[in-house]
Design a protein that fits this description.
The complex is a heterodimer. Chain A is built from 7 helices and 2 strands, in the order ααααββααα. Chain A has helices spanning 4-18, 20-24, 39-44, 51-72, 89-96, 100-110, 117-120, and strands at residues 76-78, 84-86. Chain A has a two-stranded antiparallel ribbon. The longest helix of chain A is centred in the middle third of the chain and has 22 residues, at 51-72. In chain B, a hairpin with a 5-residue loop joins strand 5 and strand 6. Chain B is built from 7 helices and 9 strands; from the N terminus they run H-E-E-H-E-H-H-E-H-E-E-H-E-E-H-E. Chain B has a single domain (52-237), classed as Alpha-Beta Plaits, CATH 3.30.70. The termini of chain B are far apart. The chains are: A mainly alpha, B alpha+beta. The interface between A and B is medium-sized, with 31 and 35 residues.
Chain lengths: 128, 238
């Protein structure tokens, strides 16, 4: 064990290097993004489901929608309040949420997810 | 093990107890399985059919000029990239063909010249037993309840087996991102992405879909028929 010091020094440098991102960003947590609702979305007050459900489950719900529409030709969604909606991302969701940059992208960028919805769906059907 | 009457009765008793416990377990299990409480169904105005079909009255389309507005309208509604110059990358949705190419098994030497030289509109036939559906390894292409050959772009892996299988050339591959080649977007209809296949018509709007949504699509009249001012096209259930 003649090289004990060298090994220890190397270990310290290695650990310092590998943990660099953690202590460099310490205390600089990016603030959670704030969503901007369009006037139409604010006027509607509730989405197709409750706000809490949409926040946590919108991706699962969209997946259910897409499966039922494409595979089962089922297009009518009735929420627990008994209100019906046409199951369409382009024409129902984006009708109110026509501000993709301020509504969708903010959270998706923050969470570092890049859903491929927009490869096919045109993001602003109203052209606002 | 020694089989005795006593042993048999013991096993039978335990089994009966187990069977009796099943409804109790079910009751416990269902307590949490309430679900989000929504309901999904076909629309009230949904139209169903065993097999939708579309008939084109070719007598009313004598010249290539007569086909142009129909092709243009269909391409516009479905966001078809029409500006791709490379023929190998072309997306065929609805196109014009010569009699010999349209009716390969119905040619003879003494055809009516008028018919022979007339341009014909071709598009996906929505076959009764579609070869593309059989060829698709991921079931991305499938025949829906109404007989429409549909495309599930989310499942398509871009293998182009359907292109090879289709005897009518009604399948195209998006070799390029189609969006820059679409002149005038219909924002209510999706485009496609690079690397997926498509067939020549879609149940989404060219045909009366299983359930026409209320606002943005006429509930009974398919979009093409709505645009054609003359009654060149008719849709119906076979």
């Amino acid at each position: 064990m003649k090289d004990k010091n060298k090994i220890l020094a190397g270990l310290v440098i290695f650990i310092a290097a590998i943990t660099f991102p953690f202590w460099f960003n310490l205390g600089k947590a990016a603030p959670a993004p704030e969503l901007v609702l369009t006037a139409k979305a604010q006027a509607a007050k509730t989405c197709v489901m409750s706000k809490e459900f949409m926040t946590t489950n919108h991706m699962q719900l969209l997946d259910v929608w897409r499966h039922n529409v494409v595979r089962g030709s089922e297009r009518m969604f009735t929420n627990p309040d008994g209100k019906s909606f046409d199951m369409s991302l382009s024409n129902t969701c984006l009708d109110c949420h026509s501000n993709k940059a301020d509504f969708c992208d903010r959270c998706h960028n923050y969470a570092s997810v890049s859903p491929y919805c927009w490869d096919c769906h045109i993001d602003n059907p109203k052209g606002e | 093990m020694n089989n005795s009457r006593r042993r048999f009765l013991q096993i039978a008793g335990v089994s009966a107890l187990g069977l009796g416990a099943k409804p109790v377990l079910n009751a416990f299990a269902s307590e949490d399985a309430k679900g989000p409480g929504y309901h999904i169904a076909k629309g009230e105005k949904a139209m169903t059919a065993k097999q939708w079909a579309m008939v084109i009255d070719t007598r009313k389309l004598q010249t290539a000029e007569a086909l142009e507005p129909i092709i243009a309208a269909c391409n516009k509604i479905h966001n078809i990239p029409t500006e791709i110059e490379n023929k190998n990358h072309e997306i065929k949705w609805i196109w014009e063909a010569h009699y010999h190419n349209a009716f390969t098994d119905k040619t003879n030497n003494f055809l009516n010249e008028d018919v022979e030289n007339r341009p014909f509109l071709l598009l996906c036939n929505h076959c009764e037993d579609p070869p593309c559906v059989r060829a698709c390894p991921t079931k991305a292409t499938f025949k829906n309840d109404n007989g429409i050959v549909m495309m599930d772009f989310h499942r398509c892996i871009g293998c182009r087996f359907c292109m090879a299988a289709c005897p009518f050339g009604a399948r195209s591959f998006n070799f390029r991102d189609p969006r820059p080649f679409i002149k005038d977007n219909n924002k209510e209809f999706p485009t496609r992405m690079k690397g997926v296949l498509k067939n020549a018509t879609s149940a989404r709007s060219g045909w009366p879909s299983a359930s026409s949504p209320p606002a943005w699509r006429p509930p009974t009249v398919p979009s093409l028929s709505a645009i054609c001012t003359t009654s060149i096209r008719k849709c119906g259930n076979c």
